[in-house]
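User: Need the bound-state model for iron/sulfur cluster:
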Amino acid sequence: MRECELLLERLNEIVDRPVRIMVACGIQNRVIMQNRLRERLPKGLTLVAGPGCSACVVPAGYIDVFVRIAVRPDVITASCKDVLSVPGSRESLASVAAKGARIVEIATPRDCLALAKANPNKIVVYPAVGFEASAPSVAEAVLEAAEQGIDNFCVIPSIRLLPPSIDQILRDPCLNIRGLLCSDHLTSISDTEAYTRLARKHSIACCVTGFELFDILRGLLSLAIQIRRGEASYDDQAAEYFSTEESERIRRLVSQVFFITDTLWRGLGIVIGSGFVIRDELALYDATKRFHIRFSEEDQLRGCACDKIISGKALPPDCPSFGMACTPEDPIGPCMITNEGICWSYFHFSSVVETE
Ligand code: SF4
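Assistant: Bound-state model below.
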């Protein structure tokens, strides 16, 4: 596309020294790989990945809880596809399903309500994995269940806010990240102030934009211009998804069900103010309270560098298992499982083995 070529030309003119930019969003990383963009960017411009793949940042200790609950005879686990194969410390939901645990793939949290009605002698449990954009649909399902008196449904809360995790990553001065590219679906609850604060606090350029190649190139150009001018500012190129009133309504809906607390992330440890927890008055719908289970801090997967990749310290070819012991058919870590994982994208779309 001619517009993309022009943006690439402009980028090549502007970037005249080494610059590292973090592309936080898994979908944007996939589009970059699909279009072999790294091969065409200015030599000094290095793109690293970030924590923007929701299944990738769920720690093994959380998956262990999903599994412990799934193997109960009184439980049906209703899960979205991406989560099924993510490994815990020993098992995944898919591996216990193969041994007889009842696990159903669903498209939306509301599907759990029909499942619960159809199976009154079972408890339908939904591992709610996602970033903030997934919180409203989970909140709606919980409120609808409460309204209809459906009490054999509950949620394992594992929804995360992205900006606090990026804040934690950027505290490492050795990373030398000068710019941050994010996508607009990661910003539906966080107001844009969160990204303005990140830019100021870490003296980086920041841009939120869409998923198309054109959007990504426009975003990278905005970052390159900001960096060259020595600016630490925030450029919002995102299409407005919601009106201000609708955004307010969504925030009210989410806060009826959840409050924000500190949460464990894969590779990042505890991130302050980054997780959604169900309010005490709706404790019946919180599976961890219902089954008296706590998350452990189990995190590391042997032979896997997902923790480093998620935090911008490595790229997939830096992992000794990439493409050898770890492939999409036989994955070791979560970044190779979902199509928002950067290892998955590298495996499918890279022709050049690239290291930093
Ligand atoms: S290639 Fe596999 S083992 Fe290596 S970081 Fe990626 S998911 Fe983990």
